Amino acid sequence: MIIFPDVDLDRVPRHVACVMDGNGRWAEQRGLKRTDGHAAGEQALIDTVNAAVDLGVEWLTVYAFSTENWKRPLTEVRFLMKLNESILVRRIDELDDKAVRVRFLGRRDRRVPPGLARQMDRATARTAANRGLTLTFAFNYGGRAELVDAVKRMVADGVKASSINERQIRRYLYHPDMPDPDLCIRTSGEFRISNFLLWELAYSELVFTDVLWPDFGPNELVRAIVEFQQRDRRFGAVKASIPHGVPPAPGTRQLVG
Ligand code: IPE
Ligand code: IPE
Ligand code: MG
Question: Which pLDDT score is estimated for 4?
Answer without folding.
Answer: 78
